Amino acid sequence: MAGVTKVSLKLMIDTERRRVLYAEAGKDFVDFLFYILALPIGTFIPLLNQEMVGSLGNIYDSIANVSTTYLRPNVNKESLLKPMAYFSGGTGLPLHLPNVESSRKLYRCCQQVSEFNTNCACGRAMFEETIYVGTPSANNPYSSVGNYVKGKVTYMVTDDLAVKPLSTDSILTLLNKFNIKEIGALEEKVVDLGMDEVVKLLKASLLTKSILTDVFLSVLKEEVDFSKKGKEEDDW
Questions:
Q1: Of 2, 63, 76, 83, which is the most exposed, with the fewest CB atoms less than 10 Å away?
Q2: What InterPro entries does the annotation carry (predicted)?
């Protein structure tokens, strides 16, 4: 996995209701959110551990536990448990999910293609390497993965990860929705996203609709409490 750099968000916090109303975000963060939808669902399950809602985790465990005796010779467990995302030119994203690999190396034999050097249905090993090449076109979502929205634009990302360009109208609409009289009532806080925050954000997005609040507000509260405690000790 490529090295992860930090991406910053400016949170607008409704301190009275103790929630993040929205975040001001740039291209990097919005591209990351859109990139999540291009990933195989199997990449998410190991990250969620026991927090998985529903039964997809049971399917994952069944694959992990099934004996290879019951699998066809050309089936490799790893290809199911650790699916790879085929992006023809990489993502170019500063943020990535852990253990998500972008692979362009494939193995071929007869009419079958696999990302693993395994056995073909004919019994021979798949040893001939081939390269995945995405066709550049507007209809191919993998040809430009990681490069979805225009730069030099500030986007509004609401607490439930709805995205739209930031504008006076979008701000006023949100303020009216939550009966907030003026934007001056909101507190601004800039936060950085690294790998820990990325994983927490993914988990929260599958479990709740208050993603930004759940991921960032408890951390910010701890920072504030710690700062106040330090000041009190200095005064003492």
A1: 2
A2: DUF674
CA separation for the pair 38, 136 (Å, rounded): 16
Residue 94 has pLDDT above 70, yes or no: no
Asked if 85 and 37 touch (Cβ cutoff 8 Å), the reply is no
**Residue 51 has which token pair?**
């927090």
pLDDT digits (tens, 9 = 90+) for 7-39: 899 999 998 889 999 999 999 899 888 888 777
Strands (E) in the chain, as ranges, are 7-14, 19-25, 105-109, 112-114, 128-131, 155-158, 163-165, 187-193
Q: Is the dihedral of CA 203, 34, 87, 26 positive or negative?
A: negative
- Judge whether 83 lies within some domain: yes
Q: Which domain holds residue 168?
A: 7-26+154-235
**The two three-digit tokens of residue 127, written as one number:** 């040893």
pLDDT of amino acid 200 = 86
Residues 188, 218 within the same domain: yes
**C-beta separation of 36 from 202 below 8 A:** yes
101 vs 202: CA distance, rounded Å: 17
154-194 residue pLDDT tens: 999 999 999 999 999 999 999 999 999 888 889 999 999 88
Q: Say if residue 153's pLDDT is above 50.
A: yes
Which phi and psi (to 5°) does residue 83 adopt?
Answer: -65, 140
Whether residue 144 is contained in a domain is answered as no
